[in-house]
Design brief:
19% strand, 3-beta hydroxysteroid dehydrogenase/isomerase domain-containing protein, 284 residues, 14 strands, 3-stranded mixed β-sheet, oxidoreductase, 3Beta_OHSteriod_DH/Estase, alpha/beta, oxidoreductase activity, acting on the CH-OH group of donors, NAD or NADP as acceptor, globular, 28% helix, Rossmann fold
Length: 284
């Protein structure tokens, strides 16, 4: 399953919400609704202007997702508004969130804790963690949060955090605006890190992995009026042109290949989310 979206809107004290916006030129996607097909499902998209109008009239905190495996329509909106949730996950098993100190990940951790899940979060360094990650430990139910040190470039680095988990939410990925060596600083950590996480998942029989990819893996230069689907891949980026886009493309492809190559008895479910612009309040 692959979710293609052009914005992921995070709202405090509410569900992690995916708002599907159009990915073409700015003048187009700000003011028009479009359709998108995901896994043969026809999906209505909000334009930005429609979304903002709805937001003025709707209580966001009433939204509540139901299942990672179910596409749901919120009753609070006239058009389709799709949410992802975690209600089918065994709460006796911790959920691993890689890159737990990141923007999206922190909101994911917060919502998991609010729903009564135990969370194994990975960070790059545990030194002075009480002060460095105070915003995580200040979250409600943070007694159910355990942090583990992990490095995208180190083999077996995620083993301890993943052990005992049925679900792993992989958000960790290098994001560097200025790099001297795009391959070393962006591409290699993104691809190797994804493989390292998946190898740990395989070793510990994880049932489902949610990968935060990006619309950058779908297109480098969006074409007006083109409807993008899970069949589209970015074929233009390289080490010299948008290396971050290139890293996200290769990392996602590596994830799909890894899962496809698993023997049937070791299969895990992979869900990929492809956000574009991520907006909302930060915890740190």
């Amino acid at each position: 399953m692959k979710w293609v979206c052009s914005s992921l809107h995070v709202v405090p004290k509410s569900s992690l919400t995916i708002v599907l916006w159009h990915t073409s030129g700015a003048s187009a996607w700000k003011n028009r609704s479009h359709s998108l097909r995901i896994n043969s499902r026809s999906i209505s998209l909000y334009s930005l202007s429609e979304y903002m109008n709805e937001m003025k009239q709707t209580e966001r905190t009433s939204l509540d997702p139901s299942s990672l495996e179910t596409i749901e329509t919120s009753r609070n909106f006239g058009r389709n508004f799709y949410l992802l949730g975690m209600s089918n996950v065994d709460k006796n098993s911790p959920v691993c969130v890689t890159g737990a100190s990141g923007f999206i990940a922190t909101h994911v951790v917060e919502q998991l804790l609010e729903r009564g899940y135990k969370v194994n979060g990975t960070v790059r360094d545990l030194k002075d963690m009480e002060s460095k990650y105070k915003y995580l430990f200040d979250l409600p139910n943070s007694e159910n949060l355990t942090l583990f040190k992990a490095n995208l470039n180190e083999d077996e680095s995620y083993d301890e955090a993943v052990e005992g988990c049925d679900v792993v939410i992989h958000t960790a990925s290098p994001y560097v605006l200025t790099v001297q060596d795009p391959k070393k600083d962006l591409v290699d950590p993104a691809v190797k890190g994804t493989k390292n996480v998946l190898n740990s998942c395989k070793k510990h029989s994880v049932k489902q992995v949610v990968l935060t990819s990006s619309v950058a893996a779908i297109t480098d230069s969006p074409i007006n009026d083109k409807v993008y689907t899970e069949e589209d891949w970015n074929t233009e980026s390289n080490l010299g042109r948008n290396p971050y886009y290139y890293s996200k493309t290769l990392a996602e492809k590596a994830a799909w290949k890894f899962v496809e190559d698993l023997p049937e008895e070791e299969k895990m479910k992979l869900v990929v989310i492809n956000p574009f612009c991520v907006i909302g309040p930060a915890h740190n």
